[in-house]
């Protein structure tokens, strides 16, 4: 069960008190925060941020010219078919629709791409005029090239041969299934949302690696800003205690049970949620990562942010532990692609049993997607020091999973498996997913281990889509268990 639903959040808020709005695909209002901007203005901002602007065009030959599929083929009717399909996609603003029949017709394309998040090119015939010039333009715009099977193949394959290894931000598709193009548009949604993302990293030492911060902006379009415990504490003191009690009550009601924490501690966690939410609203950020262990152990902050992160992740934001920016970027990159939140974990490898356990003291509960069913959960203390509040989530066996870790800025580590249960032990972190890989796969991961500790778990097999996304974002996918 999710900690509480969007409808429950909204029911307890006035219009002026609506703080954060989850930047999910539908642009739905979600998170109760401390912002003072009106709900109407924020709703418009959210919808604008979530819409993707794409330009599309067709490459073809003049009717009557010999070639595939045949000389009198009515490519204009086929273009009309694709246009009707594309226009039915509700969250994309389309421009273009040109049919290129001469190489020179494509020369003005760069100017038309101003403000576009991506480009879709459909090869309708062979020859497909404009493809050669498109290659020469070396566009920086993320591009999907779709071959209409038995029509554009000859020109499409020639273009593909020239483009390979040239560093173009290009995904090429070739299928009789035209629905493949529509499904792969999620790649362009993901890159667009990345370029509108902003992470607040809370740690006392600030920005120790300006090169990392700059490269995140240049390569992914993600803005990073840095704050410390002072900003958290100031926001925590301003948090509405009555609202925090209401949120804590909903959390308690939604959980299967509460084991160790006292009600006052859960209220403190809700105040932390409101504090971080208000800072996200202030900075118009959609992700946070907190150096939580250092700050709690050093008594720099008053509560663990575990439940705050759960709530944020369940609503389309990202809340990540231990000021791990690589993990936070993974949650953004893969979360946008998979359209669902992830579970940040420490991997535990059993080479003899062929199992990988994934353990941490919190997880999103809406692992199947923001509108999907929520996993059951138990409110627990934080395991390592047996204090504060965290969450034990019970993951549903049978789900295929993808474990991922972005290694900035050129690699994405992945592995796949199947959930076979939840480990019941008081050792280590509270949430412990059990996944079956195979003995050799676990051994390969152990003997080639890299990329630091954390992995992010997503329901579903997303490896193929990550390989395609890597072509747009210039990273290589490395399977740790294959």
TrEMBL record:
Q: Which SUPFAM superfamilies match?
A: FucI/AraA N-terminal and middle domains (SSF53743)
The record's annotation in PROSITE patterns points to:
TAT
Indicate whether Isomerase appears among the record's keywords.
yes
> Cross-referenced InterPro entries, in alphabetical order?
Fucose_isomerase_N/cen_sf, TAT_signal
- Which of UniProt's keywords are assigned here? Carbohydrate metabolism, Isomerase
List the molecular function annotations (GO) for this entry: intramolecular oxidoreductase activity, interconverting aldoses and ketoses
Q: Name one GO biological process term.
A: monosaccharide metabolic process
Look up the record and report any one GO term of the cellular component aspect: cytoplasm
Q: Domain of life, per the record? A: Bacteria
Protein name (Swiss-Prot/TrEMBL): L-fucose isomerase C-terminal domain-containing protein
The scientific name of the source species is: Candidatus Glassbacteria bacterium GWA2_58_10
User: What taxonomic classification does the UniProt entry list for its organism?
Assistant: Bacteria, Candidatus Glassiibacteriota
């Amino acid at each position: 069960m999710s900690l509480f639903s969007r409808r429950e959040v909204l029911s307890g808020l006035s219009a002026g008190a609506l703080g954060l709005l989850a930047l999910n695909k539908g642009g739905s209002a979600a998170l109760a925060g401390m912002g003072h901007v009106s709900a109407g203005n924020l709703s418009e901002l959210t919808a604008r941020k979530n819409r993707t602007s794409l330009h599309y065009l067709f490459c073809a030959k003049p009717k009557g010219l010999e070639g595939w599929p045949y000389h009198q083929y009515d490519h204009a009717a086929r273009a009309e078919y694709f246009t009707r399909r594309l226009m039915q996609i509700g969250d994309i603003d389309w421009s273009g629709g040109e049919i290129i029949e001469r190489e020179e017709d494509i020369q003005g394309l760069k100017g038309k791409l101003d403000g576009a998040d991506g480009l879709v090119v459909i090869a309708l015939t062979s020859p497909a005029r404009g493809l050669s010039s498109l290659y020469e333009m070396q566009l920086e715009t993320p591009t999907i090239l779709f071959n209409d099977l038995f029509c554009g193949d000859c020109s499409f394959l020639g273009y593909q041969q020239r483009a390979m290894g040239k560093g173009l931000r290009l995904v090429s598709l070739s299928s009789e299934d035209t629905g493949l193009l529509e499904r792969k548009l999620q790649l362009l949604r993901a890159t667009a949302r990345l370029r509108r993302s902003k992470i607040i990293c809370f740690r006392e030492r600030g920005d120790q690696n300006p090169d990392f911060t700059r490269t995140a902006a240049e390569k992914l379009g993600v803005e990073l800003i840095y704050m410390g415990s002072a900003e958290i504490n100031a926001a925590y003191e301003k948090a509405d205690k009555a609202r925090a009690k209401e949120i804590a009550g909903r959390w308690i009601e939604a959980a299967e049970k509460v084991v160790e924490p006292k009600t006052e501690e859960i209220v403190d966690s809700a105040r932390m949620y409101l504090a971080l939410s208000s800072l996200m609203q202030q900075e118009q950020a959609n992700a946070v990562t907190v150096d939580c262990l250092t700050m709690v152990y050093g008594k720099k902050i008053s509560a663990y942010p575990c439940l705050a992160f759960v709530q944020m992740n369940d609503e389309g934001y990202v809340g990540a532990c231990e000021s791990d920016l690589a993990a936070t970027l993974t949650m953004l990159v893969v979360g946008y692609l998979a359209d669902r939140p992830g579970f940040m974990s420490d991997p535990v490898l059993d080479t003899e049993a062929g199992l990988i356990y994934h353990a941490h003291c919190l997880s999103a509960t809406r692992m199947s997607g923001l509108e999907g069913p929520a996993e059951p959960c138990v409110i627990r203390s934080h395991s390592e020091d047996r204090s504060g509040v965290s969450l034990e989530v019970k993951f549903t066996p049978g789900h295929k999973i993808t474990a991922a870790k972005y290694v900035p800025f050129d690699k994405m580590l992945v592995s796949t498996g199947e959930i076979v249960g939840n480990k019941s032990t008081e050792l280590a972190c509270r949430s412990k997913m059990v996944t079956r890989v195979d003995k050799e796969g676990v051994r390969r991961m152990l003997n080639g281990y890299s990329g630091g500790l954390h992995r992010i778990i997503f329901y579903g097999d997303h490896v193929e889509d990550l390989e395609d996304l890597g072509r747009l974002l210039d990273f290589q996918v490395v399977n740790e268990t294959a």
